[in-house]
Amino acid sequence: MTGGAGREFRLPDLGEGLTEAEVLTWRVAVGDVVAVDEVVAEVETAKAAVEVPVPFGGRVVALHAAVGGRVGVGEPLVTVAATETVEEGGPSTSGPVLVGYGTAPGGEGPRRGRARRGARAPARAPAGGGAGWAPRAISPLVRRLAAEHGLDLGALSDRVPGGVVRRRDVEAALAAREPARAEPGGDGDGEVRVPLRGVRRAMAERVARSRREIPDASAWVDVDATELVAVRDALRAAAPESGIGLLALVARVCLAGLARYPELNARVDTERGELVRLREVRLGFAAQTERGLVVPVVRDAGRLTTAALAGRLRELTGAAREGTLAPAALTGGTFTVNNYGVFGVDGSTPIINHPEAGMLGVGRLVRRPWVVEGELAVRWVTQLSVTFDHRVCDGGVAGGFLRYVADRVERPALLLAEV
């Protein structure tokens, strides 16, 4: 990128052990004058897409990475040269930077990043994007996808309702083009190479590490979930604002099971040769997004009411799909619930979310014949599974946990005697 004398702003600490980020889009160009705390770029870490504000003002003289390029923590991101007036009545510098937020004078704490004179800076189009789309709320993922394929977002935004381009619009436009050609250097049969980046790369590394380090085992059982469905329907009728669904109810049962079998709310400290049992349950749940599979974490889940738990699940799922989750919301889990039933499958043997020690799996909910008190009936049936680290417990504990959860899915009233 263009160079020049000035003050370098280096990519700040991203937290949670993250060491680099990929530039999704630049909000400024060389020659622009920026104010203190103005967002200059959007970057994607292995956890989330976040905005980066600059802690001092001036004229931009260099951008140190192209869109799609990687920048390590502590490496130069943008260079800004001082100007005579940065912002009327405004400071020339601010406190420490927290990625995704602005900074308070003297490091008093984070505030949302702001643009010049308090207004949000319009996003500049990436390579191949027209100028007309810039003020519109188009997600960083869509902008990046368009940039990678040289798609004119300005022209496309004029053809979609409301002018807001979504991923399906970009994919439809790309599908209308000629079929993708094989990458150079292939074996003649045609190859398409997709770089492992962001969330996909982080997930690949995590599952590979899990497979290398964790001796996992699985157990499963079919359960009659008819009464749980009835509880869900009754709660929806009595308190529709609570938004309590089956995932929240299964999570509540899972939390009760972990209180009974705390061996599964644990991790292995391999360096010290110790099993670490955790008092707080930080419940992760698998969520499929456009960026790949992520696992948001509900902290202190065991202390939440069922309604509050349902609310956190909805909130985190929405943020995950929008790509706005902070890195801290995607790390630190102690046990995960994986609802693979949403993909229309009955069972799975998932990979444990390292360094956790267990995962509860939930298959699809279907009507099946079931024997009830000696009579054949049609019931709502699902399959539950537990995948566990065999270092932290044996099959007796894992089987006991799974049976406990299954019994309370079949007879939710049992929980009333334990709360």
In short:
The chain is an alpha+beta fold. It has helices spanning 140-148, 153-157, 167-175, 198-213, 226-238, 246-260, 306-322, 395-410, and strands spanning 7-10, 20-26, 33-34, 39-44, 49-53, 58-63, 70-72, 76-81, 102-103, 110-111, 216-224, 266-269, 274-277, 283-285, 287-289, 292-294, 297-298, 335-338, 358-362, 366-372, 375-389. Strands 11, 14, 17, 18, 19, 20 and 21 form a 7-stranded mixed β-sheet that branches.
Number of domains: 3
CATH superfamily of the largest domain: Chloramphenicol acetyltransferase-like domain
Helix content: 10-25%
Rounded to the nearest angstrom, the distance between the terminal CA atoms is 61 Å
Rg for CA atoms: 25 Å
Number of helices: 8
The CATH topology of the largest domain comes to Chloramphenicol Acetyltransferase
SS-derived structural category: alpha+beta
Strand content: 15-25%
**Overall outline:** globular
Strand elements, count: 21
- CATH class category of the largest domain: Alpha Beta
- Tell me about the biggest sheet? 7 strands, mixed
EC number: 2.3.1.-
Protein name: Dihydrolipoamide acetyltransferase component of pyruvate dehydrogenase complex
GO molecular function: acetyltransferase activity; lipoic acid binding
InterPro entries: 2-oxoA_DH_lipoyl-BS (IPR003016), 2-oxoacid_DH_actylTfrase (IPR001078), 2-oxoacid_DH_E2_comp (IPR050743), Biotin_lipoyl (IPR000089), CAT-like_dom_sf (IPR023213), E3-bd_dom_sf (IPR036625), PSBD (IPR004167), Single_hybrid_motif (IPR011053)
